[in-house]
TrEMBL record:
Gene3D superfamilies: Glycosidases (3.20.20.80). The keyword Ribonucleoprotein does not apply. It comes from Trichlorobacter thiogenes. Keywords: Signal. Pfam families: DUF3142. The keyword Signal applies. This is DUF3142 domain-containing protein. Residues 1-25 form the signal peptide. InterPro entries: DUF3142, GH.
Length: 247
């Protein structure tokens, strides 16, 4: 099992002055050229975190567990412990294996957001990481509406999205997301590798009419699209950090 990040080292790195990100270059995704990162459990601290202006930090997974004759929804803790990150923005991320959330599920996540905030962290909100199939987008929108109602208004709601949403998804359902979530981060990778055909989906992303970011994988492939970046809804990039040797 990979080791969790060392909190002391992470805090020391984040205490460094923010380094302005260098211009994005074509080809391999170099984390040093960006300023927003996903930080997953087991990923070792990297010097690039010293320039982080925004962190999406894994905190757990929402799963269904069978207990005797019934199924119960549970939140399984994952990722790093509560830290004290004084700069930038912090999102807490929960992977979802099920959408059968209960009020208690959301309250557990809200409690974690409050813990991080009370420790002095600049918490922005919650990100739901769920790989919903495109044909199930309407049901996902309905689920997110319930989460949004249960989430205190002081917190924003972010979700991850799949590349083919804008090409093959229900346009009406996608447009409804604008009234529910504050952003969608579209993933251009699957597993630990960039999706080989990612370029074919980029033109459709320009039709999104809600705030979106592009999710990249460290050391993956990315060729910037100036017309995509020119969209009034484009909000930048988020890089999924991974350990050396995983790419």
């Amino acid at each position: 099992m990979l080791r969790q990040p060392c909190i002391a080292v992470l805090l020391a790195v984040l205490a460094l002055a923010l380094i302005p990100p260098r211009p994005v270059a074509a080809g391999v995704v170099k984390a040093e050229q960006y300023s927003s990162f996903w930080l997953w459990g087991g990923v070792q601290t990297q010097p690039v975190l010293g320039q982080a202006q925004e962190l999406y930090i894994l905190q757990g997974q929402v799963v269904e567990k069978k207990q005797q004759d019934r199924t119960q929804v549970a939140v399984v803790a994952q990722g790093m412990s509560v830290a004290r990150l004084k700069k930038g923005k912090v999102w807490l991320v929960y992977r979802a294996d099920t959408l059968n959330w209960t009020p208690a599920t959301v309250q557990a996540l809200v409690g974690r957001l409050q813990q991080w905030q009370q420790a002095g962290n600049p918490v922005v909100g919650l990100q739901v990481d769920f790989d919903v199939r495109t044909r199930h987008l309407p049901e996902y929108v309905a689920f997110l509406k319930q989460v949004r109602v249960a989430l205190p208004k002081t917190y924003q709601l972010s979700i991850t999205g799949l590349l083919d949403w804008s090409s093959n998804g229900d346009t009406e359902a996608i447009n409804q997301l604008q009234q529910v979530v504050d952003e969608v981060v579209v993933q251009t990778y699957q597993g630990r590798k960039t999706i080989a055909t990612y370029k074919r989906y980029l033109p459709a992303l320009k039709r999104l009419n809600l705030p979106f970011k592009i999710g990249l994988i460290q050391q993956g492939e990315w060729v910037p699209d100036p017309t995509l970046e020119a969209s009034p809804w484009f909000r930048g990039y988020v890089v999924f950090l991974q350990n050396q040797g995983r790419y």
